[in-house]
Amino acid sequence: MSNLNNNQPIAEQVKTNDAVAKLDRMRYNKNKAAANLALLSIVFNALYFVCVYKTDVGTYFYKIMIGASVLYNLVFMLIAFLSSESVKNYKLNFAIVMLVLGALQIVRIFYIPLNALRAVHGESTVINAGKFALMTVYLSLSAAALFAGGVIGIIRSKKLKNFQQAIESEKANA
Amino acid sequence: MANLSLQHLDKIYDNKVQAVFDFNLDVKDGEFIVLVGPSGCGKSTTLRMVAGLEDITKGHLIIDGKDVTQMPPKNRDIAMVFQNYALYGHMSVYENMAFSLTLAKEDKNVIHRKVLAAAEILGLTDQLNKKPRQLSGGQRQRVAMGRAIVRNPKVFLFDEPLSNLDAKLRGSTRREIMLLHKRLNATILYVTHDQTEALTLADRIVCMSMGHVQQIGTPLELYDTPANIFVASFIGLPPMNFFDVTVNADGTLSNAEFTVQLSQEEKALLSSYVGKEIVLGVRPENIVPGEAVKANVINVENLGQNTLVHCHIGNKRVTAKFRDWCEYQTGADILVDFKTKHFFDKETTKAIR
């Protein structure tokens, strides 16, 4: 760990070195930034599906497609919430899950919104360009929040893991 | 830390009930003051007035030369530890201890260092990530103390902090408070109704009854030279035994049950009371096996190192504390002597000195 001085006990460095104190704080403080970003992604996802279900995509597309979308939304919210609670405690695996969920949110832009924009229903398309842009923004923001949370989660959990290893090895050497 | 001065404090509630009468006390920097007395005597009210949780009806509260009588609690730089801990259940120990500093928008690293230092003093370093519900009563009380310590206040106030703990834990936490006081050299005002806490912790004790200060002094002063019958009966366990006696011209004290000889000093002390009735007080440990007074044993409590012998002297129920293990049959007659005696004026209840 670049911030740590191997010639001085870590407890002493916490008292004098702000960078080490910041690392040590992680042992007692939750990773609220990553957790809140995961919750924010759920909010944007909710805005997206409200926007989708307000249109008549349901009457145009096959019912099974809409059903699958509803189910996915439920699963997404569950996993995003679990990730939020886990990254709060610096769980590396769930930070990676957040990145995967973020990627899937981008993929979703090309599923219902893009198909609905291209599909003709009567004299117009199923959704207009404005609606499509709004749905894209919501999904993109949701994805961005998940990416940011995931990256923060990975960085901090690795930092904490290394710091704890340094403490353990200091204890073992003592 | 700070000097504290309570000058002529009165507390009268809206319903006109007066809880505290003319309370005067000067607390020196780093002094440990214990307010002791029975329930309802006004000790907690006095503490709450110092904390600012109760308005002061009359008088002045001075901290480090500054009159803080009208100052709101948050500006008084005082930390209070409550009987029920008052911890936030949803926060970890670390967050509980850091809370007041977080509200004050202190630098996060500074908060961290203060919390770690306080946790080390209190032996809570391994508990910092736990929630209060995962801690024992003693540990919770230490967290409450830690929350006070991190603020580095001028004065610490403790309101019966050990009352919720079991006897064993109370003893160990009491010792921790004692060590904490030595380590921090803090000015402490501590309220309790437990005289053991008062005698073991205090530099000085304020004994209160019915809103009035009865005596202020060191634990030894209160024990050896109580100012009046109330203090004599309240301080000491088991409590002092009292007898109504007449002072005789021949240098004896007598009543219907016994006559005891007075020493030369005692005779001189009671010279103005010859022919009058006074109250004789004798602590249980000053009743020793002897010849002067006949007592009838009611029951015996063997405590290992000592034996408490409950007996009747005439119609008066008396407790004697004998050294070592003693075996007496219920109903047996024993003879005892009174060693150190305390004398009180029967009318004023004040000690005769």
Brief account:
Chain A has 174 residues and is mainly α. Helices cover 79% and strands 2% of the residues of chain A.
Description:
The complex is a heterodimer of chains A (174) and B (353). With 174 residues, chain A is an all-alpha fold. Chain A has one domain. Chain A contains eight helices and two strands, in the order H-H-H-H-H-H-H-E-E-H. In chain B, the strands form four sheets. Chain B has a six-stranded mixed β-sheet, with helices on both faces. A five-stranded antiparallel β-sheet of chain B has the order 13-12-11-14-19. With 353 residues, chain B is an alpha+beta fold. Classes of the chains: A mainly alpha (174), B alpha+beta (353). The interface between A and B is small, with 10 and 11 residues.
Outline the fold blueprint.
The complex is a heterodimer of chains A (174) and B (353).
Chain A lengths: L9 H7 L1 H8 L6 H23 L2 H4 L2 H26 L3 H18 L2 H7 L1 E2 L2 E2 L3 H45 L1
Antiparallel strand pairs in A: 1-2
Chain B lengths: L3 E9 L5 E10 L4 E5 L6 H9 L6 E6 L2 E2 L10 E4 L11 H11 L4 H15 L14 H13 L5 E5 L7 H18 L2 E6 L2 H7 L2 E6 L2 E6 L1 H6 L4 H6 L6 E7 L4 E3 L4 E3 L2 H6 L7 E6 L4 E16 L3 E8 L2 E8 L9 E6 L3 E4 L8
Parallel strand pairs in B: 3-8, 3-9, 6-7, 7-8
Antiparallel strand pairs in B: 1-2, 1-4, 4-5, 9-10, 11-12, 11-14, 12-13, 14-19, 15-16, 15-18, 16-17
Helix pairs in contact in B: 2-3, 2-4, 3-4
Which pair has the most extensive contact?
A-B, 10 and 11 residues
Helix content of chain A: over 70%
The first-to-last residue Cα distance of chain B is 37 Å
Shape of chain B from CA axes? Answer: elongated
**CATH homologous superfamily caption of the largest domain in chain B:** P-loop containing nucleotide triphosphate hydrolases
Uncertain runs of chain B are none
Average the pLDDT over all residues of chain B and give the rounded result.
93
* Alpha-carbon Rg of chain A, integer: 22 Å
Structural class of chain A: mainly alpha
Q: What does the radius of gyration of chain B come to?
A: 24 Å
| CATH secondary-structure class of the largest domain in chain B | Alpha Beta
SSE class of chain B: alpha+beta
If classified by CATH, what would the architecture of the largest domain in chain B be?
3-Layer(aba) Sandwich
Sketch the major β-sheet of chain B.
6 strands, mixed
Multimeric status of the protein:
heterodimer
